[in-house]
Amino acid sequence: MKRSMSVFNVTTLTLGLAFLYLPMLLLMVYSFNSSRLVTVWAGFSTQWYGELLRNEQFLDAAWVTLRVAVVSSTIATVLGTMAAWVLVRERRFLGRTLFSGMIYAPLVMPEVITGLSLLLLFIAIGLDRGILTIILAHTTFSMCYVSVVVSSRLVSFDRSLEEAALDLGCSPMQAFGHVTLPIIAPAVISGWLLAFTLSLDDLVIASFTSGPSSTTLPIKIFSSMRLGVSPEINALSTILISIVAVGVVVAALVSKSQIARREIEEREGQK
Amino acid sequence: MDTKPSPAPFAPWTDPAAVPLIRFEGVTKRFGDFTALQGIDLQIYPREFFALLGPSGCGKTTLMRMLAGFETPTEGTIWLDGQNIAPVPPNKRPVNMMFQSYALFPHLSVWDNIAFGLRRAGQDKDTIKARVEEMLRLTRLDQFARRKPHQISGGQRQRVALARSLALGPKLLLLDEPLGALDKKLRQDTQFELMDIQEKTGTTFVIVTHDQEEAMTVASRVAVMDAGRLCQIDTPQHIYETPNSRYVADFIGEVSIIEGRVDSLGEEIGIAYAEGQKPVMTRTGGTEVALGQSVFYAIRPEKIWVGAEPHPDRINSVEGTIVDIGYLGDVSTYHVRLDSGQMIKALMTNAERYAASRFTWNDRVWLSWSRHAGVVLTS
Amino acid sequence: MKLNPRRLVLISVPYAWLLALFMVPFLIVLKIALSDTAIAIPPYMPTLDLAAGWSGIRDFFSELDFENFTWLAEDDLYWKSYVSSLWIATVSTFFTLLIGYPVAYAMSRARPEWRPLLMMLIILPFWSSALIRVYAWIGILSSEGYLNQVLLALGLADTPLSILNTQTAVYIGIVYTYLPFMILPIYATLEKMDESLLEAAEDLGCTRISAFWRVTFPLSRPGAIAGCFLVFIPSLGEFVIPSILGGSQTLMIGKVLWEEFFNNRDWPVASAVAVVLLLILVIPIVLFQRNEEKNA
């Protein structure tokens, strides 16, 4: 195999990655700019981080967002895992086509429509908009993502493992708890993480379903953005990007070291 | 091929007073329009090593899964130890199964895999420990107890699966193609190990396999299945030497089948199979035939003698041309076309080096065999 | 199959949730889209009165009309914004393909031990907020932004280019946001391609470049088509990008719907816009599914 990268390929990759990362790097660098004029460098400063921490509105919004994300992603993981199970294992029941349609449709539904329709529902049933309505909305669309992630794992799950558990004396519930769940756990966890970040990042659906007392961070950021670039937003963005980047990198390293350990163990096993 | 000495003292199926462990009574299983099993009647006795043999899709796996509790019969009853097991769920049956894929729990160590069933049964720690260690010793897995399934070899995995399914001390152990994933050499060693373990534990084994050699080696009795029906249930020796149909004769080992008509009766009957050829003379071995009835004569290749002249002591001798030779080292097989066009397979042991070169393609040879060499089949 | 309680719970809980929070809201949108504008200012409609029995249902249906849709057809703002959405989504998808394909190709040619890292680098931005990623471009594209600073400093431009608040900025935003969606499916098809196919093509007389056009490209087409749909479908209903980068001149349906709802508080028209948007989306979604099934 010829595996030397051509100049063309190296250039393409460099430009591609620069395109993806340069805007975010600029934003992060300029969050340490001491000038309020964001695009003119005037020296290093962490003052905007300080101001951010003193900004009650941002802190409140962050707290709301975090609560919504934790609760909605947890409910969505439970519901999404159930839905995935139904999609993969229940071949025949009344309205199966409608059920799978309702799982896949929200994935391609424009957010403005999802938001609008949920808002109209909440008004129709007289539910006051607040944290609860955002949680309901986020759970609904993120459970569909969870069920897609989990069902792709369940499809390749060897069912004879469950049969073996039943054969060895497990009730169906015990078989799920002792065998199925531990094995599909990585998919369930990544489903939860996906639901969590979707909820954390969502602007459109939250805008429709939130009330005046329940502004989320993206809503707050968006309303500040309309006034143009501000150093506080730069600082906030830097914090959020860093958290996500650290999280993803750590997750990748952990799973990579697990794979590596497994390979070493396998080599030992062959001896 | 069949080197197993006949299990003379152990033959409960010949004893009318013996009580079977499992009894199938008119069991039929349908999946929608498809009939997987049709009117199965079968008895399996305690301590038997019973093999279900057949091509894929013949219903053998369905039959086994009904014993494990993963399928229920559409019609008929399955009795286990005098109890109808249809309403008993798999987790409540005194039956354990070794899965074709082994189904070892990947997140648990070898030790925990073996202890899995014992823990579910709520046994105390010391009992579990003692039992798991006993199983590890039985299957020679002591050093691997802490490994995960993906850290051991295929043969070791197979033994873990066996240990796990034996740990609960089931009355009946089901083995679904237990050796299918092993390579040939390992498979042969493991067959004897299985027989050894079966003898030591005294458990009744039911094995599903499509490999006739494996069934013949391990089993006390073999049931040959085809398209949802039981064709013949008998000891390996009887299945091989006295098959009851063309299907069984053909499925087990090599055979040549001559189609003909009974043209003389007597101590030996004559089977005419072609114009102007001397009929095949054979004993019937108890098969009732009438004059003029069309029958099949099945003969194994190793029962035929190949020579340049007719064999003086054999009742049947016929001339033909060699069209193909397969040299396998220990033996050679000859495909001979008789002058009537009938193909016959014959087998010769290569007792001397280079003896195989005695005959070659297109040589004229004589095939001779005795009056006891073949069987007369009516179906 | 028996309907045991465990099965019943497993099916009915997610089913009921989706019916209540996905299906019913969608039907409400449909209903409001068909309601009268005059009586449809909040409280927007006579609710379906099931207690009134058949006459209630009949009244409900007799009130429905297509007035809102006629309104959409007559006012050229909506026409323009639908057409402009389609145009923007198409152009952006084209540029995403143009940039994404070479990157995916280069990734698939990289050494195997580098590929997981490259994959992660492509996916990583996707995990951080789209809002922030789009926002990052304001600082670059504004008239005193980094891009203009560089251009002016290098003497490539005499006066600052105004890119922010134009359609060009929206194209850039969409390409930037959805680039991973294009790269990953193309990379997936290229990566599993058998290297010996190219060697065979060269053995049979192709040059490197013609081998690419005759072998590699056709084989990667399913991935490229999937990538195009994955970019086109969400960008059609996009709201965040046009509202942050597009300025007031850029028309996109998502933005119109938002403004109709939040600024004009005309819920029936907003609902009608939503229904038409969905109808437009059905075509690419069905085509996408066909493509996926064909290559499954």
Gist of the model:
The complex is a heterotrimer of chains A (271), B (379) and C (296). Chain A has helices at residues 7-30, 47-54, 56-89, 96-108, 111-124, 131-155, 159-167, 172-201, 204-209, 217-225, 231-270. Chain A has 271 residues and is mainly alpha-helical.
Q: What's the helix and strand layout?
A:
The complex is a heterotrimer of chains A (271), B (379) and C (296).
Chain A: H1 7-30, H2 47-54, H3 56-89, H4 96-108, H5 111-124, H6 131-155, H7 159-167, H8 172-201, H9 204-209, H10 217-225, H11 231-270
Helix pairs in contact in A: 1-11, 2-11, 3-6, 3-8, 3-10, 4-6, 6-8, 7-8
Chain B: E1 22-31, E2 34-44, E3 49-53, H1 60-68, E4 75-80, E5 83-84, E6 95-98, H2 110-120, H3 125-138, H4 154-166, E7 172-176, H5 184-201, E8 204-209, H6 212-218, E9 221-226, E10 229-234, H7 236-241, H8 246-251, E11 256-264, E12 269-272, E13 280-282, E14 294-299, E15 305-307, E16 316-327, E17 331-338, E18 343-349, E19 364-369, E20 375-377
Parallel strand pairs in B: 3-8, 3-9, 6-7, 7-8
Antiparallel strand pairs in B: 1-2, 1-4, 4-5, 9-10, 11-12, 11-14, 12-13, 14-20, 15-19, 16-17, 16-19, 17-18
Helix pairs in contact in B: 2-3, 2-4, 3-4
Chain C: H1 5-33, H2 53-62, H3 67-74, H4 76-109, H5 115-127, H6 130-141, H7 146-154, H8 167-191, H9 195-203, H10 208-236, H11 240-245, H12 253-262, H13 267-294
Helix pairs in contact in C: 1-13, 3-13, 4-8, 4-10, 5-8, 6-8, 8-10, 9-10, 10-13, 12-13
Would you write up a description of this structure?
The complex is a heterotrimer of chains A (271), B (379) and C (296). With 271 residues, chain A is mostly helical. Chain A has one domain (7-270): MetI-like (MetI-like fold, Orthogonal Bundle). Helix content of chain A is 78%, strand content 0%. Chain A has helices at residues 7-30, 47-54, 56-89, 96-108, 111-124, 131-155, 159-167, 172-201, 204-209, 217-225, 231-270. The model of chain A has no long low-confidence stretch (mean pLDDT 88). With 379 residues, chain B is an alpha+beta fold. Chain B has 2 domains: 12-248, P-loop containing nucleotide triphosphate hydrolases (Rossmann fold), CATH 3.40.50.300; 254-377, Beta Barrel (OB fold (Dihydrolipoamide Acetyltransferase, E2P)). Helix content of chain B is 22%, strand content 32%. The mean pLDDT of chain B is 88. Chain C is mainly alpha-helical and 296 residues long. Chain C has one domain (76-294): MetI-like fold (Orthogonal Bundle), CATH 1.10.3720. Chain C is built from 13 helices and no strands. Chain C is globular. The interface between A and C is large, with 85 and 84 residues.
